[in-house]
């Protein structure tokens, strides 16, 4: 490999047990990611499509090897590491602490490198540089995550007015960074760091975790970072058997459900093929709001699961019809998380196409958002779905903003059929074709009454010919 003038910010050189330098690039040892998902840098075309809000600002902290050119939070990383060293009483203890963390990184280094899929950003990183990057970035990431989960600044070792970890700091910036595509630390690294004394002591002191199930952001941070560390502290095996590559990969898998990470397994059913051929664009006749569907006599029911993995089904029960929808939670981070999922899906799709594996059916998030956006056009639509428990919001202002939030998330996808999975397109056709006329409903009621009359007559005749014996 030709020599390059590029040098990374992380430069401590370590030596192995035989005294030889470990400062050797490992570009040739990077293998395919075995964990699934993979950490990939977001393509410029995707960022341009998402607009200004989809980009990582200069003030957002960087994690991992990507997006480091204009980083402004390096001082925060250094300070987060210094807080860990402060727990050591003397220089010998600090050296031992450093070696403990380096040893931990050696255990997971191969999996961590594999998670980045051999990206060229790793080519000029030596073993020691890569480990030190994982330590500094990982410790900073975890301290920010614990702050988001409610751990106080004091417990982390900072003052209440600290510029990063202070009480009055807006946590939205940190969450945007944690869920940004490519701005990720492999979970195998974060879980290994959470086993160290500094973080274990925080977990022991924090006896009550306020993590509402409706807060998806906190739920993901708690389930993926805190729970495995608590299990480790109790010498239990981790509850989750699923190996996720990074935080965003886990969020995407959670929202789509097992086995549907990138490939949709939808079948056309027995509908008219002409309906599919007519789907060059999303016809206006195939879009319905919740209010319009209610006027057609369609009722709404909540399915058991959340997000895209919840079953969206339409059932015609003759007397009435039901549309089953998963719950949609609205909070401070709704737009942020769904935008990140959409960006992640677009990035993975482009990666698959570039690898020559064909066009993957990775538009489940975009298709779902478009469908929900069509259902919720006004606040009246929100109220219709809220009554059935489908829309959940602790703050009334969130419900007012939901139509605008969905419209922003959908953006330019709305009129492009390629962003609509086949099953949802077929569902739209069923909704369009459903129209139970009043005389049809009357005919069904008349048939039921006729059947009840026959049953009543049968039992009356049976009672006449077989009277009940009187008690003696």
TrEMBL record:
It comes from the Eukaryota. Residues 1-13 have a biased composition (Basic residues). Residues 1-38 are annotated as: Disordered. The chain crosses the membrane at residues 444-465. It holds the Pfam family DUF247. Keywords: Membrane, Transmembrane, Transmembrane helix. This is Uncharacterized protein.
């Amino acid at each position: 490999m030709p020599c390059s003038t590029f040098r990374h910010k992380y430069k401590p050189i370590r030596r192995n047990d035989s005294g030889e330098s470990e400062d050797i690039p490992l570009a040739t040892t990077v293998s395919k990611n075995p964990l699934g998902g993979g950490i990939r840098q977001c393509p410029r075309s995707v960022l341009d499509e998402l607009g200004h809000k989809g980009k990582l600002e200069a003030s957002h902290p960087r994690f991992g090897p990507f997006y480091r050119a204009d980083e402004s939070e390096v001082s925060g990383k250094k300070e987060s590491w210094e807080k860990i060293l402060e727990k050591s009483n003397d220089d010998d203890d600090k050296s031992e602490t450093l070696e403990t963390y380096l040893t931990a990184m050696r255990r997971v280094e191969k999996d961590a490198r594999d998670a980045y899929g051999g990206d060229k950003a790793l080519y000029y990183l030596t073993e020691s540089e890569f480990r030190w990057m994982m330590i500094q970035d990982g410790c900073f990431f975890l301290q920010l995550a614990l702050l988001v989960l409610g751990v106080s600044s004091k417990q982390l070792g900072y003052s209440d007015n600290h510029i990063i970890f202070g009480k009055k700091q807006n946590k939205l910036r940190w969450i945007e960074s944690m869920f940004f595509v490519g701005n990720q630390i492999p979970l195998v690294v974060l879980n290994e760091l959470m086993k160290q004394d500094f973080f274990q002591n925080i977990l022991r002191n924090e006896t009550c975790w306020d993590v509402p199930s409706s807060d998806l952001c906190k739920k993901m941070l708690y389930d993926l970072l805190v729970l495995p560390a608590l299990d480790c502290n109790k010498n239990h095996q981790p509850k989750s058997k699923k190996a996720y590559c990074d935080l965003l990969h886990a969020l995407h898998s959670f929202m789509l459900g097992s086995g549907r990470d990138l490939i949709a397994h939808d079948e056309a059913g027995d509908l008219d093929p002409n309906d599919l051929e007519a789907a060059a664009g999303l016809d206006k006749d195939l879009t319905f709001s919740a209010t319009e569907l209610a006027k057609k006599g369609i009722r709404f029911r909540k399915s058991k699961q959340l997000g895209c993995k919840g079953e969206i089904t339409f059932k015609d029960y003759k007397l009435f019809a039901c549309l089953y929808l998963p719950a949609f939670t609205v909070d401070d981070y709704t737009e942020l998380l769904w935008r990140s999922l959409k960006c992640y899906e677009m990035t993975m799709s482009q990666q698959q196409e570039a690898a020559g594996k064909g066009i993957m059916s990775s538009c489940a998030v975009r298709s779902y958002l478009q469908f929900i956006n069509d259902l919720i056009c006004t606040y009246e639509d929100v109220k219709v779905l809220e009554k059935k428990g489908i829309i959940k919001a602790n703050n009334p202002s969130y419900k007012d903003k939901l139509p605008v939030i969905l419209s922003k998330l959908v953006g330019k996808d709305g009129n492009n059929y390629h962003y609509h999975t086949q099953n949802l397109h077929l569902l739209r056709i069923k909704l369009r074709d459903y129209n139970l006329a009043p005389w049809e409903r009357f005919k069904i009621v008349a048939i039921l009454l006729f059947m009840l009359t026959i049953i009543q007559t049968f039992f009356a005749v049976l009672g006449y010919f077989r009277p009940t014996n009187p008690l003696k």
